[in-house]
């Protein structure tokens, strides 16, 4: 029984660590212009993962004495946002719709740190803005991460918000950043063909798990060693993109090798290819 409990504890810790890695600081309004500091300050968190994360018990701090523990359930949905505010009253905070109000923590206008640690004390994320040295340094506008998959410790990956909200400051609390640019390529993995060892009479289905932060266009092109070719769009089925290698199109016989290229293109035009070889 002790062994099972230890294994369960290890699984829970590993799962929590994976969830922690999914939560990133995505937007910071440290110097509001429409209302007085610190009423309008907020920090937006984004969940890059595919499962909801509860940040109850997590700690918000800086390199000095500021520290606040989140003491209630605060679920951040998959690919979702949570807005943490110093003041949750929209009539005095500039019109920010807050998901959680913190205390004992404030954002210095010049340079400061936003450090996020999970309930086990493991640092999940850290942003150290630097009074305009490498990070933006706006007044009346938030600092936004241009893509939530980029390194948010690098000031060059941040910019000033351009969309107005509430009482007139610029920012996108709880929404996709106004300067968002998808700069990451799609990921193609777990490519498989069914049947694994086809005969010259089989129609072969080729499937792959393809992921990205935006909508995808996934296509398949196959070329047989006999010179025949075919292809077309791959459709999303139960989490996989699948397409058929038709024996009538490729006309592959025994000993014929079919080389297929999966191409995934996202809404920003980022494109990646994966090649797979099917032998009959």
Helix content: under 10%
**Terminal Cα separation, in Å?**
50 Å
What oligomeric arrangement do these chains adopt? single chain
Proportion of residues in extended strands: 35-45%
Can you put this structure into words, describing what you see?
With 280 residues, this protein is mainly β. It has 2 helices and 20 strands. It has helices at residues 2-22, 247-250; strands at residues 23-29, 42-47, 53-54, 59-61, 67-69, 75-76, 81-85, 100-101, 111-117, 123-130, 143-145, 158-160, 187-194, 204-211, 216-224, 229-233, 235-237, 240-245, 257-266, 271-279. A hairpin with a 5-residue loop joins strand 9 and strand 10 (123-130).
How does the SSE layout of this entry go?
Elements: H1 2-22, E1 23-29, E2 42-47, E3 53-54, E4 59-61, E5 67-69, E6 75-76, E7 81-85, E8 100-101, E9 111-117, E10 123-130, E11 143-145, E12 158-160, E13 187-194, E14 204-211, E15 216-224, E16 229-233, E17 235-237, E18 240-245, H2 247-250, E19 257-266, E20 271-279
Parallel strand pairs: 7-8
Antiparallel strand pairs: 1-2, 1-11, 2-7, 3-6, 4-5, 4-9, 9-10, 11-12, 13-14, 14-18, 15-16, 15-19, 17-18, 19-20
């Amino acid at each position: 029984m002790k062994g099972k409990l230890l294994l369960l504890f290890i699984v829970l810790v590993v799962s929590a660590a994976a969830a922690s890695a999914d939560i990133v600081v995505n937007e910071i309004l440290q110097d509001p212009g429409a209302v007085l500091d610190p009423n309008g300050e907020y920090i937006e968190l984004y969940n890059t993962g595919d499962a909801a994360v509860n940040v109850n018990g997590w700690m918000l701090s800086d390199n000095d004495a500021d520290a606040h523990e989140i003491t209630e359930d605060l679920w951040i949905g998959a690919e979702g946002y949570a807005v943490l505010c110093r003041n949750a009253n929209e009539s005095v905070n500039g019109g920010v719709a807050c998901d959680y109000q913190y205390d004992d923590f404030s954002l210095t206008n010049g340079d400061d740190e936003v450090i996020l640690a999970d309930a086990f004390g493991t640092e999940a994320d850290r942003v150290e803005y630097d009074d305009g040295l490498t990070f933006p340094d706006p007044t009346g506008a938030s600092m936004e991460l241009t893509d939530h998959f980029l390194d948010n410790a690098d000031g060059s990956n941040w910019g000033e918000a351009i969309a107005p909200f509430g009482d007139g400051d610029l920012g996108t609390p709880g929404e996709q950043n106004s300067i968002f640019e998808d700069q990451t390529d799609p990921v193609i993995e777990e490519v498989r063909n069914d049947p694994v060892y086809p005969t010259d009479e089989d129609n072969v289905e080729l499937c792959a798990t393809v992921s990205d932060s935006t909508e995808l266009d996934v296509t398949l092109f196959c070329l047989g060693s006999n010179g025949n070719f075919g292809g077309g769009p791959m459709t999303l089925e139960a989490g996989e993109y699948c397409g058929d290698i038709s024996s009538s199109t490729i006309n592959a016989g025994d000993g014929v090798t079919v080389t297929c290229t999966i191409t995934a293109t996202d809404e920003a035009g980022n494109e990646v290819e994966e090649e797979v070889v099917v032998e009959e």
